[in-house]
Amino acid sequence: MASLQDQLLKAGLVDKNKANKVKKEKQKKANANRRGGGEAGDQIKQAAQLEQSKKVERDRELNKQKQAEANRKAVQAQIRQLVQINRIDREGGELAYSFVDRGKVKNLYIDEHLQKQLSLGRLAIVSITTKGKLGYELVPTGIAEKIAERDSSYVVQILKSEEAETEDDDPYAAYQIPDDLMW
């Protein structure tokens, strides 16, 4: 069975050049529809662009989260290193020094010299997690302030020096607090 085009050519109603021209136009339309041309193609292109912009936005958000996590880990590593390098050795401590951390009273065993340094505000207590276990270390006050700049949740106690705490109109200024007073 011959196609309509072949029949028209045999009848002499259409010449061969015109038939080829019509055939090429038909193929171009079919290709354009397949590639996304026309109204349906525009809608598909818009949907694809919208999907691409959503994907780019999601990727940006994920990158921001990854960057924030990397920064947090870097700060933790810096704090851990500061504590490890500058921690004060408490070995052989016999006195229990009590302090409050997260609403609970904790004890550190220290010697008299370290107790005096803590009471004068020269040392501070910081909390550090090593191998999944929470521990406390003594560091110089300057180091504790550097740690607090990075993340204040690590610093448990920084006492100000006694000279800074005394006020001019303090009625008890003449009475000295004994050094051996234990809480």
CA-CA gap between termini: 110 Å
Helical content class: 40-55%
The biggest sheet amounts to: 3 strands, antiparallel
Shape: rod-shaped
Instruction: Identify low-pLDDT runs.
Output: none
Whole-angstrom Rg: 40 Å
Secondary structure: number of strands: 5
N-to-C SSE string, H for helix and E for strand:
HHHEEHEEHEH
State the secondary-structure class: alpha+beta
Q: Report the mean per-residue pLDDT as an integer.
A: 82
The number of helices is: 6
Strand content bin = 15-25%
Strands of the largest sheet, in order across it?
A: 4-3-5
Please give a structural write-up:
With 183 residues, the protein is an alpha+beta fold. Helix content is 55%, strand content 19%. The chain has a domain at 40-163.
Quick rundown:
With 183 residues, the chain is α+β, with helices and mostly antiparallel strands. It has helices spanning 4-11, 16-35, 38-86, 112-120, 141-150, 162-165; strands spanning 95-101, 104-110, 123-130, 133-140, 155-158.
